[in-house]
Amino acid sequence: EVQLVESGGGLVQPGESLRVSCAASGFTFDDYAVGWFRQAPGKEREGVSCISSSDDSTYYADSVKGRFTISSDNAKNTVYLQMNSLKPEDTAVYYCAARPIPRYLFPAYSYCSGYEHRGDYWGQGTQVTVSS
Q1: 105 touches 44 (CB < 8 A)
Q2: pLDDT band at residue 29 under the 50/70/90 scheme
Q3: What residues does 49 pair with on adjacent strands?
Q4: How far apart are CA 102 and CA 48, in angstroms?
Q5: What is the rounded end-to-end Cα distance, in angstroms, of the chain?
Q6: How far apart are CA 96 and CA 50, in angstroms?
Q7: How many CB atoms sit inside 10 A of residue 111's CB?
Q8: Cα–Cα distance between 103 and 96 in angstroms, integer?
Q9: Is pLDDT above 90 for 80?
Q10: How does pLDDT run across 88-124, given as a tens digit for each residue?
């Protein structure tokens, strides 16, 4: 019942844009911190961008700041990642993940920068390839 489904990935040329989507079923994003993480071959998983309704905060990794924008649509229970000015180094499988907001303050940076995510809900990932 609880499920996250990513979509919108694909092959684009450097400088182009993509918007990936993460749709949730079985729960409501309003009660969660949600993040986009990416995994590139030979590299560690990194937190790209996160959003948390704990304090309505967002977070962006330095490598994507100014190029990527995370947003949510409560009516559609969907979180988006708008990716502009894409670079070859952005090539990766992009995953969305979610964690219930705890009772204490849990800002977006805490989710993206956290060390433990294996207990979170995860989507299947969507491939983003940036190549000329």
Answers
A1: no
A2: confident
A3: 36, 60
A4: 21
A5: 40
A6: 9
A7: 26
A8: 22
A9: yes
A10: 999 999 999 999 999 999 999 999 998 788 789 999 9
Q: Three-state secondary structure along the chain?
A: CCEEEEECCEEECCCCCEEEEEEEECCCHHHEEEEEEEECCCCCCEEEEEEECCCCEEEECCCCCCCEEEEEECCCCEEEEEECCCCHHHCEEEEEEEEECCCCCCCHHHHHHCCCCCCCEECCCEEEEECC
- Candidates 121, 109, 21; CA nearest to 72 is 21
Residues 6 or more apart from 41 whose CB is under 8 A from it? Answer: none
Q: How confident is the model at residue 28 (pLDDT cuts 50, 70, 90)?
A: confident
Spacing of C-alpha 96 from chain mean position: 5
Tell me the pLDDT tens digit for each residue of 33-73.
999 999 999 999 999 999 999 999 999 999 999 999 999 99
Report the distance separating Cα 123 and Cα 33, nearest Å: 14
